[in-house]
Amino acid sequence: SGQIPVLNVNGVELASTDTIFICPGDSFPLTLPTCRNPVWSNGDTNMVLWVSQPGSYYGTISNFIGAQFCFAFSSIINVAFSTPNPVITLTGNNNLCPDDSVILTSTAGNSYLWSNGATSQSITATASGNYTVTVTDANGCSATSESGPIIVNPLPAVPTITANGPVIFCDGGSVTLTSSSATGNQWYLNGNIINGAANQTYVVTASGNYTVTVTTAAGCSASSSATTVTVNPIPATPTITPNGPTVFCAGGSVTLSSSSATGNQWYLNGNAINGATSQTYMATATGLYTVTVTTNNCTSPSSSGTTVTINPIPNAVATPSSQSICTGNAITTIVNSGNVTGTVYSWTRDNLTVTGIAAN
Questions:
Q1: Smallest Cα–Cα separation from 202: which of 223, 221, 174?
Q2: Reduced to 3 states, what is the DSSP secondary structure of residue 63?
Q3: Per residue, what are the HEC states of 200-235?
Q4: Chain segment 163-213, per-residue pLDDT in tens
Q5: Would you state the pLDDT for residue 334?
Q6: Alpha-carbon span 163 to 179, nearest angstrom
Q7: Which of 130-139, 153-162, 177-186 has the lowest mean pLDDT?
Q8: Can you spell out the DSSP letters for 86-116?
Q9: CA-to-CA distance for 109 and 138, rounded, in angstroms?
Q10: Dihedral angle at the C-alpha atoms of 315, 316, 318, 321, nearest 10 degrees?
Q11: What angle do CA 284, 290, 294 make, to 5 degrees?
């Protein structure tokens, strides 16, 4: 026996504790010192062993010196594959909408080459495609990952809103808004989601800016422009104040005043009085007077009625109107007043009140 032979690779001696990393498909020459009868651990008997597989390799040499047989084992060299195994991880969803993105990250390596030409460990993907990365480790070995498919889905058509009537109306009214999309709708009021409003139509009873957003099964959305709805309040019920008695004689009048300064319409016995739109109305006819107030095309309930009563002037006719009589005699004069209820009689003679004559 002799000194332990030291293996070498391309003329470089290797310590027995060294591990040589090779890339799959590559090989390297492992050489024993000059000797006779080389035998390798895998049975090969060539002086140079080309190694392409992982394992522990050593060689033996033998020789006869005179009559003595000498035999020696070489140092042992470990060979292993250097095999990066790149895996792509996604930060986000691989189903994207336009203007969305997802971050693709490779497992660690010494250098990177993505299928889109990027050379960083992480990339931001915004387009559809199958993304792969080739990773090279510190030993110069490379491997390519499986593909990471990215899908960019189209946006739905921008929806439009159609109203089935005027979008300006009075409190208590409504308008139905209809989306141009039959499915995927969500209605909003002033930018805030309306809970449960996911049908194609929505009945509006409140003022505000209404929009609808349509979302596809892939989660991509498009929003309509706003439709403004204005709901005007109903004016308060007005009241009527007369400026004097509401019962008077023909030829008189009473001025009725509404509690509202504007928007008035006066009525007599439920019928509109043409042109009677001021805050006040001078009543000269018997009947029941009411007033309503209209603001922004919304009309209040009718006021309570104010009854005006105009009594006629009596037309007294005395029969006979004149007659000659002898002194000491008397005649009876009858007055026809038209049988007006509540008539009170007052007699005069020669423009002087006659006393002692009873009223009839």
A1: 174
A2: strand
A3: CEEEECCCEEEEEEEECCCCCEEECCCEEEEEECCC
A4: 999 999 999 999 999 999 999 999 999 999 999 999 999 999 999 999 999
A5: 59
A6: 9
A7: 130-139
A8: --EEEES-SEE-TT--EEEEEPP-SEEEETT
A9: 7
A10: -60
A11: 120
Q: What's the pLDDT at 233?
A: 97
- Cα separation, 93 vs 95, in Å, equals 5
**Which has the minimum average pLDDT: 223-232, 233-242, 313-322, 329-338?**
329-338
Q: Are the CB atoms for 160 and 180 separated by under 8 Å?
A: yes
Tracing tokens 């009725």 back to the chain, one arrives at 256
- Can you give the three-state secondary structure of 279-347, one letter per residue? CEEEECCCEEEEEEEEECCEECCCCCCEEEEEECCCCCEEECCCCCCCCCCCCCCEEECCCCCCCCCCC
Tokens representing 282 are: 């001078």
Cα distances from 221 to residues 96, 156, 271, 360, in angstroms, run 11, 6, 56, 94
pLDDT in tens, 261-306: 999 999 999 999 999 999 999 999 999 999 999 999 999 999 999 9
What's the predicted TM-score (pTM) here? 0.65
Q: Are 210 and 147 in contact (CB under 8 A)?
A: no
